[in-house]
């Protein structure tokens, strides 16, 4: 990760264009960074130059541009001492502040480009170009939505949920919140877990339930996952006070037997194969 950087263009007799930047601040709620930038020319102490054109961009957006047909767009002469702003060693042409919006996960790589074209006293025209790119420090973000919960081990009154956490900016999740109920938007009740699984109890046999999960880290809480659903196993409340799978019995000749369902097919009662 970088908090500052520099581009030095192609050298010409020890001189070249430059672009400098420094991280000024980061806005966590807005998910963006502010950077200070400067662009100019580095040159020997004894120099006579006329810079006809200059250009600098950040993230593909132009932040500085200057052009002209003559030699005095940016003119300086250390040897003759005739130009205002004459500073042997370097000359800053422009400076400013630029906002860089980060990606949804808080990361951001940005690039910059700079170039200068001009005239050299007693010599030919010249050109100096340069590019660079850097990774800014990640801005902490809310965690992303977990995957839709996977449902398993369904019985009459309980089931297990499991999910995965989508990548965020690396901040650890502190708690997961599970919302569930008979409404299709999975509202009704909530519970929490500090791991990627949860057993839900106290459900009713034969009822369809909906489930969703969201994650919280030190920055905030992310969105809910997609919704999963299942229907609980039908059951009967038996004498020991628990729900069991409902198995119908009938009395045949004074003996209790497992009931076999029948259906009428073409007017004839037939034994069901299900």
Q: In CATH, what is the class of the largest domain?
A: Mainly Beta
Radius of gyration: 36 Å
Unreliable runs: 78-88
How many helices? The count is 0
- What CATH calls the topology of the largest domain is Immunoglobulin-like
Q: Helix and strand string, N-terminal first?
A: EEEEEEEEEEEEEEEEEEEEEE
Class by SSE composition? mainly beta
Helix content range: under 10%
**Gap from first CA to last CA:** 64 Å
- Average pLDDT metric: 82
Domains, number? 2
Gross morphology: rod-shaped
The total of beta strands comes to 22
Beta-strand residue fraction: over 45%
**Main sheet summary:** 5 strands, antiparallel
CATH architecture of the largest domain: Sandwich
Compile the SSE list and pairings:
Blueprint: E1 4-8, E2 16-27, E3 32-43, E4 48-58, E5 61-66, E6 74-77, E7 89-101, E8 109-120, E9 125-135, E10 150-152, E11 159-162, E12 175-181, E13 189-193, E14 197-200, E15 208-216, E16 228-231, E17 235-237, E18 243-245, E19 249-252, E20 255-258, E21 262-265, E22 268-271
Antiparallel strand pairs: 1-2, 2-3, 3-7, 4-5, 4-6, 4-8, 8-9, 10-11, 11-14, 12-13, 12-15, 15-16, 17-18, 19-20, 21-22
């Amino acid at each position: 990760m970088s908090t500052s950087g520099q581009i030095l263009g192609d050298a010409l007799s020890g001189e070249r264009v430059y672009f400098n930047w420094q991280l000024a601040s980061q806005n966590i709620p807005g998910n963006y960074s502010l950077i200070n930038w400067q662009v100019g020319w580095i040159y020997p102490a004894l120099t006579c130059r006329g810079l006809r054109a200059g250009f600098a961009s950040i993230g593909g957006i132009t932040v500085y541009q200057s052009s002209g047909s003559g030699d005095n767009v940016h003119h300086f002469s250390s040897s003759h001492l005739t130009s205002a702003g004459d500073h042997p060693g370097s000359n800053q042409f422009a400076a400013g502040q630029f906002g860089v919006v980060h990606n949804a996960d808080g990361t951001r790589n940005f690039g910059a480009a700079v170039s200068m074209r001009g005239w050299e006293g007693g010599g030919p025209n010249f050109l100096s170009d340069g590019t660079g790119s850097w990774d800014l420090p990640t801005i902490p973000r809310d965690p992303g939505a977990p995957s839709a919960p996977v449902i398993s081990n369904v019985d009459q009154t309980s089931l297990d949920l499991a999910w995965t956490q989508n990548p965020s900016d690396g901040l650890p999740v502190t708690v997961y919140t599970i919302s569930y109920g008979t409404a299709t938007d999975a509202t009704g009740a909530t519970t929490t877990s500090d791991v990627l699984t949860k057993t839900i109890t106290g459900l009713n046999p034969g009822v369809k339930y909906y489930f969703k999960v969201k994650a919280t880290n030190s920055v905030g809480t992310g969105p809910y996952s997609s919704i999963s659903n299942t229907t609980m196993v039908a059951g009967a409340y038996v004498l020991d006070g628990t729900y069991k799978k409902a198995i119908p019995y009938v009395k045949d000749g004074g003996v209790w037997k497992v009931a076999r369902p029948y259906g009428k097919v073409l007017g004839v009662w037939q034994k069901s194969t299900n």
